[in-house]
Design goal:
Number of helices of chain A: 8
Largest sheet of chain B: none
CATH class of the largest domain in chain A: Alpha Beta
Oligomer: heterodimer
CATH architecture of the largest domain in chain A: 3-Layer(aba) Sandwich
CATH class of chain B: Mainly Alpha
Low-confidence stretches of chain A: none
Number of strands of chain B: 0
Helix content of chain A: 25-40%
Mean pLDDT of chain B: 91
Strand order of the largest sheet of chain A: 6-7-8-3-9-10
Number of domains of chain B: 1
CATH architecture of chain B: Orthogonal Bundle
CATH topology of the largest domain in chain A: Rossmann fold
Largest sheet of chain A: 6 strands, mixed
Distance between the termini of chain B: 46 Å
Helix content of chain B: over 70%
Shape of chain B: globular
Strand content of chain B: under 5%
Order of helices and strands of chain A: EEEHEEHEHHHEHEHEEEEEEEEEEHEE
CATH superfamily of the largest domain in chain A: P-loop containing nucleotide triphosphate hydrolases
Distance between the termini of chain A: 31 Å
Low-confidence stretches of chain B: none
Radius of gyration of chain A: 23 Å
CATH topology of chain B: MetI-like fold
Order of helices and strands of chain B: HHHHHHHHHHH
Shape of chain A: globular
Number of domains of chain A: 2
Structural class of chain B: mainly alpha
CATH superfamily of chain B: MetI-like
Largest interface: A-B, 22 and 17 residues
Strand content of chain A: 35-45%
Number of strands of chain A: 20
């Protein structure tokens, strides 16, 4: 076991921003950490990177309980490397940026050069060895940050939104690179993302944070919404303030904004064509935008004005003979809707 | 006007012929200014860093105090140090008054706040993520501090150059604590004041030329350092 967190909380100015009852991270796996802005992803990363101690709770690293004393932390930080969303490069050459961590670890100069060359080769930046790090593009900087981390042969790599600020081409390169690193070095890899699909494609497992707590949802299908009265004591839910949805089951009494609703993708029934009135509770119309096979299930992204994910069994999918662009009806039972 | 032109030409002649008296005065000035700048840098840079990054109470008050000290007249510092190093002062036994060391002490008091204040400004501009990046790459506290100082090196160099410019051109401290003793504590500025009092402008103008040249050099160096910082 790489990490084990028990009853870990973090507070800023008296406000609890992280509250994790239990979390286990297995060595050698890739984890995707999902959550909205302010969900606590960076706070959790800072604790996992030993950059800040938790307000309470216990952290175990490689089976050992972590004491957040200065000497202890310095030793642990040499085993875990974090790659920032906007990586900071020291104002020097590409080569010297990678050399920094190696020098700190007391590696001899001859060995350092070999490690630097290997790391640069891996991220395909060997041609920029003596270039100024400030001259690199966003994608190249991200790759250099990964090379700088890789050169240190860490047990754990924490990547904060590794593909958020790079172009599509570099996104694919970085995803492939992270997978390769994990396969070749067996280092535990955690990355944060807002993108459920990216996380599903890269991670062995996903962890979802919601308001600082671990949740069992798959992060997708969480929508901000407002409740509006439509007369006769009935309320309509505006998903992301734009798609009207007549809710099945119980509805919060108070009208207004600021609600968050989760539509369980396993409990959404998909019917071909527009077969029922959207005025009826639990009904949404849309078209299929994307289909992906995921083991024994098929993930469908349906555009109903917002993107709603539906999970079907392979058998259901085969029976329905669906294609991208098909018009479909989504039928949600009351137990498919959860208020967060 | 012809009087000024004559003095100017004679002064150039003094500079070109490497007049011993002129260069003796310049030597004393440069020596005390370099030593005081060095000592103030050794004290002021860590002080500025500590104030900027340290978790200290009343940080704003300390910064306000430092900024106030930037405007402190040299004669006030001269008086303050005089009170300590004169025969009747607590440091009177060291017999420092009217020595180059006395000038150095006064000048250190003058420019340490300047270096500290400019260091605070320089390191405060450094992105906090440099510190985080250094730590996550395994740096200890001292190594992290060195990373931040290295990133702020252009700003800190500019602070030191500014401080040197300030001490090489000050007169109050050199006059009050050095006493303007020929061949010993006579600096460029005190010599210029004396020559002016005597009505002998030639040496005063020559010293003025040297002082202006040093100021020009300092400014060129300052701009060069700042320019590199922007690259």
């Amino acid at each position: 076991m790489q990490y084990e967190l028990q009853q870990v909380t973090q507070q800023y100015n008296g406000k609890t921003v992280l509250n994790i009852k239990r979390l286990e991270i297995v060595s050698g796996k890739i984890y995707g950490l999902l959550g909205a802005n302010g969900a606590g992803k960076t706070t959790l990363f800072n604790i996992l990177a030993f950059l800040e101690p938790p307000a309470s709770g216990q952290v175990f690293f490689a089976g050992q309980s972590v004491f957040f004393g200065r000497t202890e932390l310095h030793k642990l930080r040499q085993r875990v490397v974090m790659v920032d969303q906007y990586p900071i490069m020291f104002t020097t050459t590409v080569c010297k940026n990678i050399e920094f961590g190696l020098k700190i670890r007391g590696m001899e100069k001859g060995c350092r050069q070999a490690v630097i060359d290997e790391a640069l080769d891996m991220v395909d930046l060997a041609a920029y060895r003596n270039a100024s790090a400030a001259e690199l593009s966003g994608g190249e900087t991200q790759r250099l940050a990964i090379a700088r981390a890789l050169a240190l042969s860490p047990e754990v790599m924490l990547c904060d939104e590794p593909t958020a600020n790079v172009d599509v081409e570099n996104q694919a390169v970085i995803r492939a690179l992270l997978t390769r690193v994990n396969q070749e070095t067996r280092c535990t890899l955690l990355f944060t993302s807002h993108d459920r699909l990216q996380a599903a494609g890269l991670a062995d497992e996903t962890i979802v944070l919601e308001k600082g707590e671990l949740v069992d949802t798959s992060y997708e299908n969480i929508f901000s919404c407002s409740l509006e009265s439509k007369g006769g004591g009935q309320k309509v839910c505006m998903l992301q303030q734009k798609v009207p949805f007549n809710l099945p089951g119980s509805v919060p009494e108070k009208e207004g904004r600021g609600y968050r609703v989760y539509l369980n993708p396993d409990k959404i029934k998909l019917i071909q064509g527009e077969q029922q009135s959207q005025q009826r509770p639990g009904i949404l119309f849309g078209t299929i935008s994307l289909m992906m096979a995921e083991g024994e299930k098929v993930r469908l992204i349906v555009n109903v004005g917002v993107m709603v994910t539906v999970l079907l069994s392979v058998r259901e999918y085969q029976q329905l003979r669906l294609a991208i662009g098909d018009a479909v009806t989504l039928k949600l039972r009351p137990d498919a809707v959860e208020w967060l | 006007m012809s009087f000024f032109i004559d003095s100017f030409l004679s002064a150039i002649s003094l500079v070109v012929t490497l007049d011993p008296e002129l260069f003796q005065v310049v030597g004393v000035s440069l020596r005390v200014s370099c030593i005081s700048t060095l000592l103030a840098a050794v004290g002021g840079i860590p002080l500025g860093f500590f104030i900027a990054y340290g978790n200290i109470r009343g940080k704003r008050m300390v910064i306000t105090l430092l900024n106030t000290m930037l405007a402190m007249p040299t004669v006030v510092i001269g008086l303050f140090v005089y009170a300590f190093i004169s025969r009747r002062g607590v440091l009177g036994v060291f017999d420092l008054l009217y020595t180059q060391n006395a000038i150095i002490i006064g000048q250190v008091f003058l420019i340490t706040p300047l270096i500290a204040a400019l260091t605070i400004a320089a390191v405060s501009r450094i992105d906090e993520r440099y510190s985080k990046t250094a730590k996550t790459l395994g740096a200890n506290s001292l190594q992290t501090v060195l990373v931040i100082l290295r990133e702020a090196q252009f700003g800190i160099c500019a602070a030191v150059i500014s401080a040197f410019g300030r001490v090489v051109s000050e007169i109050g401290i050199s006059m009050m604590l050095g006493g303007n003793i020929k061949g010993f504590t006579r600096t460029m500025t005190t010599a210029m004041a004396l020559e002016y009092d005597k009505g002998s402008f030639t040496l005063a103008v020559a010293l003025g030329l040297v002082l202006m040249s040093i100021s020009l050099l300092m400014n060129i160096l300052f701009n060069f350092v700042q320019g590199r910082g922007r690259l």
